[in-house]
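Q: Could you fold this chain for me?
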Amino acid sequence: MRRHVTAVAELVTPLREVASDAELIRLGNRWEIAEEAAPTRPHPGTPATPPWNRIVEPAVGVVDKLRDAVTGRRTQLADLNRRPRQ
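A: Sure. Below is the predicted structure, expressed as C-alpha cells.
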C-alpha cells in the first residue's frame, strides 16, 4: 500500500505543476469514474492487455460490486462511516 501511495504521489506532484485547474478537475473526475468501475478484488487471471482488459475489467468490476453489496463488504470511502451488516 505504501508503495502505491508513493507512486501516486510521484505522479501527481509534477502533474500539479504543469496542468491547469480545469485539467486537474477533469482528470480527477475521470479517476473517480475509473475507480467506481474497477474491480474491488484481485483477479490475476484476467487479461492485462487491450482489447480484452477493457472488455473484461468493467464486467468483473460490476460482479465485484454486486458481491460486495450482498456480503456487506465495505469497499467505498463512503462505506467506512457505516457499520458492517451482522
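A (continued): Residues 40 and 64 are 6 Å apart (CA to CA).
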